[in-house]
């Protein structure tokens, strides 16, 4: 059999070297400012010289096939299909689809894998390429950092998981690299995209620009979902842009993979902040605390959408009745808040404590997630041992919803649905229905969404179309370590995956370990969050001083002035299917824009550039092509340009620029 490389479309495969590559070409010019312009959308004078750049995606294929004597046995090829048979019986199929206007697609599939307990391919783009998307990461970056993401199953995970045997919320040393895998989509600035189907038992790692995709069932949470655990199949799609921008390419690919949200969530949650009891009162919160907090908010003339009662309101976790000692008159509390136009929302979760009345009730055991022995599985979460309600079971969903409806009858307006990750399912989990552990996450979110558009969740999977808020995992009260500098990367990553309504974590972080947010950090956090779609407070500004209260009110006033613009941007997003909060490369493919994770775009007409560094009173800003007005100084700039902008701490807004038509 010939060892010459095989070709299909622009794909070349050399099985002797275990190497696959795909080439594509960008035609670009350089203007007088050395700014890269894509020929696909630019109007170029005939006298300007154009250059063609080759972009290459390379894949080390069949990494499980270590024995170099195992080689290609036979192959067949036509316009749309390349089938390779290897002399150990394994087959590699490559399907080629070029019918779409803006991209080509290659479907890679390893089948008949009898000799290996896993199959792995390793993907790498050009050295100057950037990658976006993929998992949630504790220390989220945009684009993906070129540091190690641990090799792990690509499943939803609590990226700040508590060690049950140590101090509450003791974060592990390697927490910054923890990942939570929900949507299996990666986008490369060289205009390649990767998608892995949900039925693949996927493991991933990302290490210095190398994205590893591995199918493995043994010794993994996937084991209960496959009859044959020895021969996993690995398949994935590679999308290759034709002549279009990165923005156009992403919209086309993502739009064919996922639905988008066509309705705005509860506008009240955009217009006014959410106030949470969590960071300030933690699980010690009482009815007195709730009413005292509400009165403080009113006395300080702070805007409020709703007050969130977060944690330890029940007699036991998993019982749906209030602790009578801590909350002696829930109906009276709700009525008092309602008279002040304050909605009370309640923290809920999927756990039923073993010591709760519901946990001790044998007639409810069939509603819980089971282990490999068919028994209700016992898990450890941050409040001890518990069963987990199985949201893939319609009867369990009905029972859970009935409990929450009971809460609404006493005056609770809506709910914060916490947890929901595979982290908190039993080992060797067996769901009532579903083909993957992540099916639990989707079922949980769809149950939450049945309570309307005022809910918030922290997991997702194929739920982009639901008009609800998806919150950021807890942030630490720091600048750099899972703190403020992750605010924008998280929003952009959510948006790339189609979750446009991100609820950022509380201003100033959670204060874990007694680490109180400094006054400077609190102000910069407010400014960075000011033009995002929702704001959330727990530590109030009046706990600091009058100066901070003054800047708080000025920021709230400015946000209110911008509200019609933000709501209109949301409405446009519902029609176009595009994110509300967009990366800078939405407007430009200059290297500065492709690498920028500390600026963001709203509706193509506004660029926001907050201060995210301690002690800084100025920052560098990149403005793409066009004419831009600095709204705080009214200076006019012509892009593309790089600027250094002053940004005083006690200001009512971060630096932001609007397009001048």
From TrEMBL:
Signal sequence, start to end: none
Top-level taxon in the UniProt lineage: Eukaryota
UniProt keyword Cell membrane, yes or no: no
GO molecular function terms attached to this record: hydrolase activity, hydrolyzing O-glycosyl compounds
Record domain Glycoside hydrolase family 31 TIM barrel: where: 277-566
Pfam families xrefs: Glyco_hydro_31_2nd, Glyco_hydro_31_3rd
Keywords: Glycosidase, Hydrolase
Listed CDD domains: GH31_NET37
Domain Glycosyl hydrolase family 31 C-terminal: 577-654
GO biological process assignments: carbohydrate metabolic process
Family from the record: Belongs to the glycosyl hydrolase 31 family.
Protein name: Glycosyl hydrolase family 31 protein
Source organism of the structure: Wuchereria bancrofti
Native organism taxonomy: Eukaryota, Metazoa, Ecdysozoa, Nematoda, Chromadorea
């Amino acid at each position: 059999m010939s060892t010459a490389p095989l070709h299909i479309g622009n794909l070349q495969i050399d099985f002797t070297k275990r190497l696959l590559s795909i080439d594509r070409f960008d035609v670009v010019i350089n203007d007088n400012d050395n700014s890269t312009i894509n020929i696909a959308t630019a109007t170029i004078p005939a006298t300007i010289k154009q250059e063609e750049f080759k972009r290459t995606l390379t894949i080390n294929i069949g990494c499980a096939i270590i024995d170099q004597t195992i080689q290609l046995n036979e192959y067949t090829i036509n316009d749309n299909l390349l089938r390779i048979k290897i002399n150990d019986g394994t087959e590699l199929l490559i399907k080629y689809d070029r019918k779409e206007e803006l991209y080509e697609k290659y479907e890679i599939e390893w089948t008949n894998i009898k000799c290996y307990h896993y199959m792995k391919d390793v993907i790498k783009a050009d050295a100057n390429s950037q990658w976006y998307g993929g998992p949630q990461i504790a220390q989220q970056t945009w684009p993906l950092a070129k540091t190690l993401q641990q090799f792990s199953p690509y499943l939803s995970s609590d990226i700040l998981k508590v060690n049950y045997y140590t101090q509450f919320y003791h974060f592990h040393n390697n927490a910054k690299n923890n990942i939570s895998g929900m949507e299996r989509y990666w986008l490369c600035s060289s205009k390649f995209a990767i998608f892995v189907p949900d039925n693949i038992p996927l493991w991933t790692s990302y290490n210095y620009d190398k994205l590893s995709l591995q199918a493995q069932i043994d010794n993994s949470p996937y084991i209960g979902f496959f009859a044959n655990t020895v021969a996993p199949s690995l398949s994935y799609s590679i999308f290759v842009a034709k002549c279009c921008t990165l923005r156009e390419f992403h919209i086309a690919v993502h739009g064919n993979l996922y639905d988008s949200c066509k309705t705005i969530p509860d506008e009240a949650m955009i217009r006014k902040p959410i106030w949470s009891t969590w960071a300030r009162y933690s699980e010690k919160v009482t009815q007195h605390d709730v009413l005292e907090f509400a009165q403080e908010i009113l006395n300080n003339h702070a805007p409020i959408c709703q007050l969130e009662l977060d944690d330890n309101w029940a007699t036991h976790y998993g019982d749906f009745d209030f602790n009578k000692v801590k909350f002696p008159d829930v109906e009276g509390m709700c009525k008092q808040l309602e008279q002040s136009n304050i909605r009370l929302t309640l923290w809920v979760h999927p756990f039923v404590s073993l010591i709760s009345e519901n946990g001790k009730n044998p007639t409810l055991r069939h509603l819980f997630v089971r282990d490999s022995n068919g028994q209700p599985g016992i898990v450890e979460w941050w409040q001890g041992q518990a069963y987990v309600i199985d949201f893939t079971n319609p009867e369990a969903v009905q029972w859970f919803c009935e409990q929450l409806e009971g809460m609404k009858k006493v005056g609770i307006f809506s709910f914060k649905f916490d947890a929901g990750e595979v982290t908190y399912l039993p080992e060797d989990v067996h769901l009532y229905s579903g083909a993957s552990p992540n099916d639990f996450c989707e079922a949980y979110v769809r149950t939450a969404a049945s309570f309307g558009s005022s809910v918030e969740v922290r997991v997702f999977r194929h739920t982009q179309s639901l008009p609800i808020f998806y919150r950021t995992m807890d942030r630490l009260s720091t600048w750099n370590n899972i703190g403020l500098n992750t605010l924008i990367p998280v929003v952009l990553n959510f948006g790339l995956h189609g979750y446009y309504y991100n609820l950022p974590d509380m201003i100033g972080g959670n204060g874990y370990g007694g680490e109180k947010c400094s006054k400077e950090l609190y102000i910069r956090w407010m400014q960075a969050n000011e033009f995002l779609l929702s704001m959330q407070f727990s530590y109030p500004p009046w706990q600091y001083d009058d100066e901070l209260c003054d800047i708080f009110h000025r920021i709230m006033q400015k946000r209110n002035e911008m509200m019609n613009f933000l709501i209109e941007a949301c409405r446009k997003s519902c029609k176009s299917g595009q994110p509300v909060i967009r990366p800078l490369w939405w407007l430009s493919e200059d290297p500065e824009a492709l690498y920028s994770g500390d600026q963001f775009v709203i509706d193509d007409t506004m660029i926001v550039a907050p201060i995210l560094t301690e002690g800084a009173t100025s920052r560098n800003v990149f403005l793409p092509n066009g004419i831009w007005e600095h709204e705080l100084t009214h200076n006019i700039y012509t892009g593309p340009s790089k600027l250094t902008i002053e940004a005083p701490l006690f200001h009512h807004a971060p630096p932001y620029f609007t397009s001048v038509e």
